[in-house]
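Final report, closing paragraph on structural work. Over the funding period we assembled a curated collection of sequence-structure pairs, and we close with a single example.
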Amino acid sequence: MIRGRLISKAGSGRRLPGLWLAAVTALISGVSVFVNSYGVRAVPNPVVYTTAKNLVAALVLLGGALLLGSGWRQGAVGAGATERTPTHPGRARAARWLGLAYVGVIGGGVAFVLFFVGLAHSSAQPAAFLHDTLVVWVVLLAWPTLRERASSWNLLAILLLVAGQLLLSGGIGPLVLGPGAGLVLAATMLWAVETVVAKRLLADVSTAAVAVTRMGVGVVVLVAYLAASGSLAGLLALRPDQWSWALITGILLSGYVASWMTALSRARAVDVTSVLVGSVLVTSVLAAATGGVGLLPQAVGLVTVAAGVALVVRGWPRTVPT
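Its predicted structure, as stored:
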């Protein structure tokens, strides 16, 4: 009885850190999308642009990890802790290295190439919608791999989030899959797998190690891609004004990765990914404030997304799993 009360009390205390970190991630993501819409225009090659900003992000994260020294935190705690089955030490070590390899090579490298090449061959709205289906793929993967069961609150929230994004993207019509949209969807599915893999890793590996691996190894993959495609000279020839955009967006990206990984370590992947969809609200407000698309034509979609995020918050787990 006393143990149950202690668990419930601890859970309510740990609920806000996971929730607020997910909200911070969504806020940074919304600002990043808005700023990147300007930065990507300054560099003609989208992969050169993303390599430059990812390089900045990797250096910022590495510097932060070295400065703090403690690796931010070790292992997962709180409502997001994943129940682990004891395994052979050698197999567990091999699994960790394999997971880190996936996070770095695929999540931080290959998926970025697919996404930005796909974005260059498709329009922004369908690409944004396809990227935000990340929550759907995470829900499908988290059930068998992380034992995260989506509650009725989660399912209703996800339905509203997807419906809101569909309204914002202009309906089903623009979502006809072409080569570009197909690459964006492939990148999104790779990131969904990465989310599940990172969640498992964060039970044993520090947040800093996972974050630095993602961006550090990923940028090596991006540079290798530029070299193989003959575009490496474009990275070396970037002007100071182009590097300034990479610096701004790279710092935002480092904040996004740090808060995203920390939120994943403290809360369920399903809930964190659902809150992330709310980033579209931030992007839309910033676009309207700077004279872009007004909020009124998007009102129904934005309200629907906001309702979905509110339901995620309403159904957020309040206790630590025993």
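The CA atoms of residues 71 and 208 lie 5 Å apart. The chain has a mean pLDDT of 81. We thank the funder for supporting this effort.
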